[in-house]
Design a protein that fits this description.
417 residues, alpha/beta, five-stranded parallel β-sheet, 14 helices, 19 strands
Length: 417
């Protein structure tokens, strides 16, 4: 079926990568992207690219452009309340074995634009609209749009609508929240209109008691900016704070900023400047630092979950979105456009990969102690490891022995030249 008619719900990274590869496989495919926002959302925090996603961006021909637009972050420095560095984890300098700072650190908006630019004139885009409902029929998936109430039939509905995907809830017959795991980590992201890092290329990470984190990342904008992150980690003993964060998240940005003012006003270090910068920012965004694990990634006929809608994963979500888009299009190519067969092939590749990933919650809690003494011990351990360059030695040894980041086992898709 060379003239596939596909609807992608969501104009983010996953959907754009999928559209790119689907058009490589089927140049005559009819692709519509529906986006809830009034325009492309070209904002967002720093994201990175790892594992097989590095190979995919090279095959797409966009790797040089991505390198040109990276944030130039050289590593992460952990600092104390006086701003003194206690440990530094530097970038590895290799895409085969990356550290906490990737070789491809790039702002989400820049990456989204790089991916959608090659295909934007070859697809139909509908803004300020979203999928309200859908039903499966013999002729395909009949979609009802929420605002126009228009009904259209597609061969395939791709749910790339994020962490709280309503389409995921519909195919599982549950509330979307039921597949979200990892309570206890909330994050806010925003651009500060001054360079709090004073021209430095190291991100700075500061911990205050009670699970409060201030994470500042460099921004190469010549005007002088900083990317701010305020993170709250709560344990089961802090349910009151967790409930306040959840409530503020539901109520919206103003409510969440008010709560952050209250929680961080006495955090120390650069907290006052960061909070002031937060209030003056134009791109404030807050969310759960959570993962999604869905019991299935497709409904067996014509609806499929892609990217965060199916497998949001903190620290690896962007790479999974790229890999997922590539695998879904490749599966449609392998199946000669047979949607049902293709979706099974896609799930057979992605489900074992996703389910084999470890949960980052425990690592986040360990890495960010709740008490002053815990923070001091963490700093002592990190300072000793980096001071003796054990982190670099471990990476050098792994490289010498031929170890690289684990790659995804994927079929050899017969892409047309």
């Amino acid at each position: 079926m060379s003239n596939l008619n596909v609807l992608i719900s969501g104009s983010g990274i996953a959907g754009s990568v999928f559209a790119f590869w689907l058009l490589r496989a089927y140049p005559n495919a009819q692709i519509t992207i529906v986006e809830r926002d009034a325009s492309l959302r070209l904002t967002g925090a720093s994201v990175d690219i790892r594992s097989s996603a590095v190979d995919i961006i090279k095959w797409m021909g966009v790797e040089p452009t991505i390198r040109q637009q990276t944030t130039n972050e050289k590593g992460v420095q952990f600092v104390d309340a006086n701003g003194k560095g206690v440990a530094t984890l530097e970038a590895s300098g290799s895409s085969d074995m990356q550290s906490i700072t990737s070789e491809y650190e790039i702002f989400r908006g820049a990456l989204a634009k790089i991916f959608i630019d090659p295909i934007i004139d070859r697809v139909t885009t509908i803004f300020d609209e979203f999928v309200e409902d859908f039903e499966q029929r013999d002729e395909g998936v009949v979609v009802t749009f929420a605002k126009s109430k228009e009904r259209k039939t597609y061969d395939l509905l791709v749910a790339a609508d994020g962490l709280r995907s309503k389409i995921r809830g519909a195919i599982l017959n549950t509330k979307p929240e039921e597949q979200i795991q990892g309570e206890g980590a909330h994050a806010a992201y925003f651009t500060i209109k001054q360079d709090l890092l004073q021209g430095g290329h190291l991100a700075q990470w500061y911990n205050a008691p009670n699970g409060r984190v201030i994470f500042l990342r460099p921004d190469p904008d010549p005007a002088g900016r900083t990317r701010g992150n305020l993170i709250n980690l709560t344990t089961t003993r802090q349910l009151d704070t967790r409930q306040k964060l959840d409530t503020a998240l539901r109520q919206g940005n103003e409510s969440y900023m008010n709560l952050l003012d209250d929680l961080f006003h006495d955090a120390g270090w650069l907290a006052p400047a960061v909070l002031q910068g937060m209030r003056a920012s134009d791109d404030f965004y807050c969310s759960l630092f959570a993962r999604v694990r869905s019991p299935k990634l497709q409904n067996g006929r014509g609806v499929v979950l892609l990217g965060d809608a199916g497998y949001a994963t903190p620290g690896f979500g962007t790479s999974l979105a790229i890999i997922g888009g590539y695998v879904l299009a490749g599966s449609l190519l392998n199946a000669s456009g047979d949607v049902s067969t293709a979706l099974k092939g896609y799930e057979n590749v992605m489900a074992p990969l996703v389910n084999g990933l470890s949960n980052a919650d425990a690592a986040m809690q360990w890495f960010n102690p709740q008490s002053w003494w815990g923070i001091r011990i963490r700093n002592l351990i990190l300072g000793s490891v980096t001071g003796l360059k054990l982190d670099k030695l471990a990476m050098l040894a792994a490289s010498a022995l031929g170890y690289t980041e684990k790659k995804v086992s994927m079929p050899d898709y017969p892409w047309p030249s």
